[in-house]
Amino acid sequence: MIIYGVALLGVCLLVGVFLGELLGQIIGVKANVGGVGISMLLLIFLSHWRPIKEKLADGAASGVLFWNAMYIPIVVAMAAKQNVVGALSGGWLAILAGVAAVVLSFALVPILSKASDDPRSLSDEG
Amino acid sequence: MTETLIAVLSKNALITAFAVVGIIIWLSYWLSDRISAGRIHGSAIAITVGLVLAYFGGVQTGGSKGIADIQWLSGIGLMGGGMLRDFAIVATAYGVDLKELKRAGGRGAISIVLGVLISFTAGAALAVAFGYRDAISITTIGAGAATYIVGPVTGSAIGATSDIIALSVAAGLVKSILVMTCTPLVARLIGLNNPSSALVFGGLMGTTSGVAAGLAATDPKLVPYGAMTATFYTGVGCLLAPSILYLLVRAIVE
């Protein structure tokens, strides 16, 4: 049943975000620490657990895959609700600070992932 | 008649959003095929169209939620809001290769801390270049260059003025929008084509929306890896910026 997949997704998100909030409180920051990341790990682990794996194979996976496929449309909606005017109204300092942060971070990607260059990388699989 | 139409659209806001986003994506993929011969990915065009619409929405309404501030398009706000975004991001983790995660996990963690430091330093340095001399303003603007959440959280923790906090939010928004639009353009240059580099990328960039959209427009298969590390970034930023980084800046400038 599709709802099992959707519910699994929902439970993973709620538990993960809850743990992320707790983690934030424990280390004393006013932010959710990795809630979505924890949710993702939960989903990965749970989907390999036999009773859930069977349900997923039995049609529940469609409930997860639907939301997986809705990801890009949701991101487009997210782009359409950004405060673009606010970003530009910050003036040159805001724009340059954003540009500098992005350029430097982009530049570090190959340096940091170099160490992980490995012939087994997924790119070979397409 | 228009009134009735707008009433129907507003009343069914989320459904309206599905229809509107569907049309945007259809148009974008058509443009991608016909105009760019597939060179620019359809989703990259769709995200850019979304940002352009957000700009006009903001200009027209004076609000802060882009096109979602137009009443009959308010469903865009729900569809593109944090709740459904996170739900869909978690869904992308389905089918993720656990071995890849484990292999690059350590490097991903390093990239988060390094990413916060790099963006913070860039923002703080520019704040100094623009004439700010007090540790609170410099730290808040640096934190904003990390993400638009780290900025205000840090600013209110150390007592920044509201115009500085607004500036830090703007810096974070610029970063997020740039990551959304530029990632597909530089992906090849920075070797962003495998799970390991996506993990590092998410940790270095940190803006969840930017990473989510940037990777979607580059290669949707990479999304879960980048999103995984990116969701820890804001928390780490909120931990480091108002504490160690603030003390460091204060020690340097005062």
What does this entry look like structurally?
- The complex is a heterodimer of chains A (126) and B (254).
- With 126 residues, chain A is an all-alpha fold.
- Chain A has 2 domains: 1-77, no CATH class; 83-115.
- Chain A contains 6 helices and no strands.
- Chain A has helices at residues 2-26, 35-46, 50-69, 71-80, 84-89, 91-114.
- The longest helix of chain A has 25 residues, at 2-26.
- Chain A is elongated and about 55 Å long.
- Chain B has helices at 2-11, 13-34, 42-61, 75-79, 82-92, 98-129, 135-146, 150-158, 162-186, 195-205, 208-218, 223-253.
- The mean pLDDT of chain B is 92.
- In chain B, helix 3 packs antiparallel against helix 9 and helix 6 runs parallel beside helix 12 (223-253).
- Chain B has 2 domains: 2-84, no CATH class; 98-253, no CATH class.
- By secondary structure, chain B is an all-alpha fold.
- The radius of gyration of chain B is 20 Å and the shape is globular.
- Chains A and B meet through helix 1, helix 2, helix 3, helix 4 and helix 5 of A and helix 2, helix 3, helix 4, helix 5 and helix 6 of B.
Rg of chain B: 20 Å
Beta-strand portion of chain A reads under 5%
Number of strands of chain B: 0
Order of helices and strands of chain B: HHHHHHHHHHHH
Helical run tally of chain A: 6
Reported for the largest beta sheet of chain B, the result is: none
Question: What is the oligomeric state here?
Answer: heterodimer
Number of domains of chain A: 2
Q: In the residues of chain B, how many domains can be counted?
A: 2
3D shape of chain A: elongated
**Helical/strand content category of chain B:** mainly alpha
Give the biggest sheet of chain A.
none
Q: What general form of chain B does the structure show?
A: globular
Q: What share of the residues of chain A lie within helices?
A: over 70%
| Sequence of secondary-structure elements of chain A | HHHHHH
Radius of gyration of chain A: 20 Å
Q: Mean pLDDT of chain A, nearest integer?
A: 87
